[in-house]
Design goal:
5-stranded antiparallel β-sheet; 12% helix; 212 residues; single chain; mainly beta; disordered C terminus; 13 strands; 4-stranded antiparallel β-sheet
Length: 212
């Protein structure tokens, strides 16, 4: 049996409008959300080291740890094209469950800006998450590459103005039972807010902070 539907012109117009709205929603690009950042949490206690391993961007980025410009401590400068070091740097010893807060400062085309892994602004979200899930990690930029190693696929702090390609700065994280090398820790004591606790360590030598 064939059933024929006779739609009036107003009903047909309404149906087309609804389909148009649904179609636009289906293809609309995802917007970065404040809850999309997944910060790195120590899965076990140990010494954490970080190492710059690559990247592609025209901007100049400083990478370090901290929760704001006030307590940011730089570990690498000149990323990705003129890195200050290619060696792994010891960050310190952290207990299991400690959240490692990271930050970046980027200069490009006369502009500059900050991004932090605990931030809720657009710059931070784009830098520290994969808003279109292009990496296939559920929106995370943290890729586990071994039992105790991870790679961070970061956009820089100004990428939110241009793109989200997750390859401006690549940082390797490694957890070991002993410090990986004798590379000194950076200058000035850094206070990191992790959960409700303050994690502090003492620096072994003084380094000028390149970020003004």
């Amino acid at each position: 049996m064939i059933v024929r539907l006779n739609l009036s012109k107003p009903a047909l117009t309404t149906s087309i409008a609804i389909l148009t709205v649904l179609s636009s929603l289906a293809v609309a690009p995802p917007r970065a959300r404040a809850d999309s950042i997944q910060e790195f949490v120590m899965p076990s206690g140990g010494y954490l080291s970080i190492q710059f391993i690559g990247g592609s961007a025209a901007g100049v980025t400083t990478f370090g740890l901290g929760t704001s410009p006030n307590n940011f401590v730089a570990f690498f400068t000149g990323l990705p094209n003129s890195p200050s070091s290619l060696r792994a740097v010891n960050v310190g010893f952290f207990s299991a469950g400690t959240t490692i807060h990271m930050g970046m400062f980027t200069r490009f085309a006369g502009a500059s800006g900050w991004a932090f892994s605990n931030g809720t602004d657009q710059a931070s979200i784009v830098a520290f998450s994969d808003i279109d899930n292009s990496l296939g990690l559920g929106g995370s930029i943290i890729q586990q590459t071994g039992p105790n190693t991870w790679v961070l696929h970061l956009d820089d702090a100004l990428s939110y103005k241009y793109d989200d390609d997750d390859n401006d700065v690549l940082i390797r994280l490694r957890i070991t039972s002993k410090p990986v090398s004798t590379v000194p820790e950076p200058a000035s004591g850094l206070l990191l807010l992790s959960g409700g606790a303050l994690v502090a360590w003492r620096a072994r030598r003084r380094r000028n902070n390149p970020v003004s």
